[in-house]
Write a structure and sequence with these properties.
The chain is globular. The protein is built from 15 helices and no strands. 67% of the residues lie in helices and 0% in strands. The protein has helices at 22-41, 51-59, 66-84, 91-117, 122-129, 148-167, 170-195, 214-228, 233-254, 265-270, 273-290, 301-308, 310-329, 340-371, 374-377.
């Protein structure tokens, strides 16, 4: 083809496309948020830090919301896949085989490591094998490896949502997703009051599946709106701005009443909800930018790399935090008398580097060989 025959790329692409690379950057952002949270805020005694450092450490609490961003992304992507493949004769086979190839290899390695190292009981392993890690407190079994709770929630979603998507119309699914969003805070509030007589409401009760579905429902709702109620780009922008504004208004209005504290009723019910509004808007804006004339700006190689290894990095990174602390306790890493904040940062760099390397090796040599089977088996 001569230079004069080269067709220029269209200024605007469809908002929904087979490959939406901009979402890979959001995935990378989400896992970095989680990594920062566990590096600086998680299990850190903030009271021993001076005010400026304590403020920074408090802000890193928001990193835990990376899990909630993952939920919204998952709800959006999985619902889109299911709706778009609803008419296929191999609908169930294709979906479940592809999910298994994506999830199981790294997941099984993850639940095996705590058992080998003695950090987990066989009871927890048994529950984890059937994706009930988030429900073990109901049976008196401690959650030995915290990050697995969200994998269980998503797996329960994968079991039920394909069945509903196959049988129901998009509009009925839209109503169902909206109902889940409305009911979830009420379920969390009921759980709060059920636990309150015990004297302490453990955060783990909010990890139960029925208390964690609204993030996935927000993502599903966005996927359904973009398919069933196509909006022009200007209307979509206004809708997304309104959504983000609603989330921020809800957050600010709830601050005096304890919306950030899950040991208070409002926080137990609504702490994550404003962020779900914002994250849904963020995904919508990413889709708009990724399909518009500035789409190259949404391609960040660093974030895309972290998006590529995000699953393994999420699963494995706490092992390296535990390994670091184990080496410190046994004197293998000399406990220097240095500024506490500098110590946290050194730990972040060391643990982060080791976690990223292990996650990349996992992606390259464990996950990718199974992912290549998707084309052959589905």
């Amino acid at each position: 083809m001569s230079e004069s025959q080269i067709v220029p790329a269209p200024r605007y692409l469809p908002i929904l496309r087979p490959v939406m690379s901009e979402l890979d950057s959001l995935r990378g952002l989400a896992i970095l948020m989680v990594l920062v949270y566990h590096s600086y805020y998680w299990q850190t005694n903030l009271s021993v830090f001076p005010p400026i450092q304590r403020l920074f450490l408090t802000i890193t609490w928001t990193g835990r919301l990376g899990v909630n961003l993952f939920f919204v992304l998952s709800g959006f992507l999985i619902t889109g896949i299911l709706v778009d493949s609803r008419s296929r004769t191999d609908y169930y086979k294709s979906f479940y085989i592809r999910r298994a190839l994506r999830i199981i290899p790294a997941y099984f390695l993850t639940i095996l490591i705590p058992v080998i190292t003695g950090a987990s009981s066989l009871q927890f392993l048994g529950f984890s094998l059937i994706y009930l890690s988030n429900l073990t407190p109901l049976f008196g079994v401690p959650i030995a490896y915290p990050v697995l709770w969200s994998l269980s929630v998503e797996e329960h979603f994968y079991i039920v949502w394909p069945l509903l998507t196959r049988k129901l119309t998009n509009r009925v699914l839209f109503i169902l997703a909206g109902t889940i969003i409305a009911v979830s805070p009420l379920l969390r509030l009921a759980t709060f009051y059920f636990e309150l007589p015990k004297g302490w409401v453990d955060f783990q009760v909010f990890d139960y599946t029925w208390n964690s579905l609204d993030g996935l429902a927000f993502g599903a709702l966005l996927a359904l709106v973009l398919r069933e109620f196509p909006l022009d780009r200007k209307t979509l922008v206004l809708s997304l701005v309104s959504l983000a504004t609603l989330g921020m208004v809800l957050l600010l209005a709830g601050l005096p009443f304890g919306i950030l504290n899950r040991h208070r009723p409002l926080g137990a019910a609504l702490q994550v909800v404003p962020w779900y509004f914002v994250f849904t808007a963020v995904i919508g804006f990413a889709l708009l930018l990724g399909s518009g004339p500035w789409r190259s700006k949404t391609r960040n190689p660093i974030l895309e790399f972290f998006g590529l290894i995000s699953y393994g990095l999420y699963l494995y990174h706490l092992f390296f935090f535990w390994l670091f602390e184990w080496l410190v306790r046994r004197g293998f890493i000399y406990k220097l008398q240095i500024d506490l904040f500098l110590g946290l940062t050194i730990r972040f760099l060391l643990v982060g580097t080791a976690s990223v390397l292990f996650a990349w090796l996992s992606r390259r040599f464990l996950e990718d060989p199974f992912l290549r089977l998707k084309a052959r088996w589905t």
